[in-house]
Amino acid sequence: MTGLLGLARRQATAHRAVPVALALLVLLVAGVVTAWPRLLTGVDDRQVTHEVAGASPLSRDVVGVLPSVWPRLDPPPPGSTPYPPDVEASLGGIHVALEELRAAQPEPLRSLLGDPSFWVQSEPAEVVPPPDPVIGRQLLRLTVDPQLGDRVRVVAGRWPEPPVPVDPFAGLTDAERVLLTLDEEAALVDAAIAASGPLELVLSAPAAEVLEWEVGAERRFAGNTVPALLTGTYEVTDPGADHWDHALYSAEPHVVDDLNLGTSATAAAYLAPSWDGQLPPGFPAHVGSYRTQMVFPVPVAALTADDVDAAAAQLVRFTTPQPLGDGGQAEAAPEVRFASGLGEVLDRVRQQQAITSTVLTVIAVGPLGVTLAVLLLAARLLVARRRPGLALLSARGGSGRQLRSVLALEGLVLGVPAAAVGALLAVLLLPGRTAPADLAVTGALALVPAVLLAVSTSPRGLREGRTDLGGRPGRWRWVAEAVLLALTAVAVVLLVQRGVVPGTGATDVLLTGVPLLLAGATCVVVLRVYPLPVRALAGMLRRRRGVTAFLGSARAVRDPSGGLVPAVALVIGVSVAMFSAVLGSTISTGVQATAWQSVGADLRLSGPVIDDDQAAAIAAVPGVAGVATIGDAGTVSVSGERLDLAVTDLAAVRAVQADGVGIDHLPADLPAAAGDAVPAVLSAAAAEALGAEVGDTVRAAVGDGVALEVVGTVERLAGAGTTGDVVVDAAAFATATERAVLPRTALVDVADGADPTAVLERIREVEPVALAQNPAGDASGFLSSPMAGGMNAALTVAVVLSLGLVVVAVVMTQLVGAPARARLLAVLRTLGLDRRRARGIVAWELVPLAAVSVLAGGVLGVLVPWVLLGGMDLRALTGGQEQPGLVVDPLVVGGVLGGVVAVTALAVLVSTVVSSRADVASELRMGEET
After folding, report:
1. Cis peptide upstream of residue 108 (ω within 30 degrees of 0)
2. How far is CA 780 from the centre of its chain?
3. What is the pLDDT of residues 336-356, one digit of tens each?
């Protein structure tokens, strides 16, 4: 054993460049393998935060409501809440019940539920407005919020005192009350109102201004003589806080301008927090119907990607009906049902995680395959450099096990420390989380050099020989190749038959396996087909003068450098680059098509009424090429089906959307409707529901009814929003119904060469309040998400790493055959072969294989995304409702393929120049010695 260790030590110190290169390769790959899951975990975490933050507080927060009655829960022990004793006695039970409910939840839901808040609010009570009011109808919702003082500051007046209602019938028995006359009862009520005093309240400063109510002034509630005293006004300390999205009418009043009913305003009027809900006598009964709203705010960054599945399941259980607290002394605990739109957000995140993990797994496996091929080349190169010593050991009786042990030991010495250093650097340099399972691949990589060196070593392999002479074709190779091709065909058929399946939160094994099988099948075909044209070419060149082409092609057939390994590296490396380019183009185009489907034009304005004069003013803005307005006629009955009806100028819409990306355009030759019928274009869904085709007539229940003649169909009218099932010509519709639909949407076509942002700024001078959208802005906003950014970064890393490994594979392939090639060139140089023709012979050994492999890899890089689109739901990556189509951008694909060819050609050139500079004297001397 001592001799074996000594031989291993001497072997390791010889030809140091090769083992150092192998160790550096393991270090680099181990760092990438360790960093990859850390990066993806960070992207997933940021995407969860991005999606949760993008949801409005109304949809993401967990909200519960107790309707109808004032909440009567037993007061908690004194000091168990942050409220004053009188407030704690009245509403402290709700606070404690919510805290206990949150504490009873498992993680991660417990951390997902923020500090609870609640408030109690009455039905609207109308107050008598001042003389000649701006707002004719003024409504107050009496509200109690124990935490109001933490959210607002009083800017005028003071906080209200709690009301002390006087019972007008106190001291009377039921029999005595029945005997009261109406006048006597009214007198008792008036006396009780006077004794109770006014109902003190505070309003927000904007509400007091809109209601024209000064601090210290009294108003009367309509329908009775109870006065309300405005003791103060407040301003919110943080207008952007999520609380005000839930607390309606609190920060500002809600003003409605109705052409039929006139103007009205509703505001939240806050009473003292210790109020127990008892109203002064004389109040309308409906006002005493209270609504307790409870909110668990969801912190934006409270959830990590690993917790999404558990949080979604726990949230479903939490939103089932459940008791709140223990109830009062004589009542059962009230039942509350919480609700939240967060579940939809988490479902969308799970779909995104499923599709991104599948895509990124497909992307990552490609470079890993190239890495294994390069490591195998490095192992074979190291074995080739160790061949003299190993041959000596074998000649002196060394067994195959001993030979493999020597190389395996060297592989462990090289691989384990290098992998550990690479993993450590990845952990130290990159933020993120690394689970123990993530290090499994790194650990396996540390053992790869030892395994490959042991497999590449055998006593029979220490003698050189021609691969085209001797031996019969391996039967098991044919069997393995046939099995691989059959599995590939079966997997592709299953994927096509299965169709597109939405992500469920886990990596799709079939989608991940099909690209690997296709890559393996392509390599098999390349290796089986490649020798045929090269042999034919060598036969043709045999009859020509000159030794370079003939000898080079002959060596490419009988002694190909590296054999299977460089073909695998080139095919997979090129396919990963092409796959990344095609997938990136498909996603980018899909995002743009989604944005155009939503916006419908270069610019979309919505909100206020945009009549003909306003549309003409917008059309006159410099840089505007055209304007088309769309009016929403609401949901109407069309031949028995409830459909959304939109009115517009069909020709104007068609002109504005002429340059639209990924949308279904209105037909260019819409026929005119016959008679008095109104021309109509149906969406695909509406046409299917009605069973109507072009030329059919349907009837819309508008006024006395109007006939609509179908003059065309589209998949969906882009930019129409929620309407657009049926799109009718505005002028014909107004003539037929004698009704004009005021449009609130304008599609704006920006002139060629004009900047949409600059045009929008000029439009703002004409229309300053409309909500503006543009496809470029929507697309860039979606593409700026962590998911999209991480996907682009992963695609870029995969391309760069694959191309780098391709270069290494080409160089190592040349180095593997360098000794035999050097001896051949030394002999030929003594016979008069110059360096130029020597380089030609060296290049011939790899150029045919490289050309075939690059071509096959390019085809595979387009084939894989085409196959995957049949089973991969990319809607989560584009934000659209429809599966995007495959996009093969000639410029992108040509650029990537050109880069691949250039990189491969450069690697061949460099390795050829280096390999052709063999020292003639030393090679001939070595040949004499051997």
Report:
1. yes
2. 13
3. 899 999 988 888 888 888 788
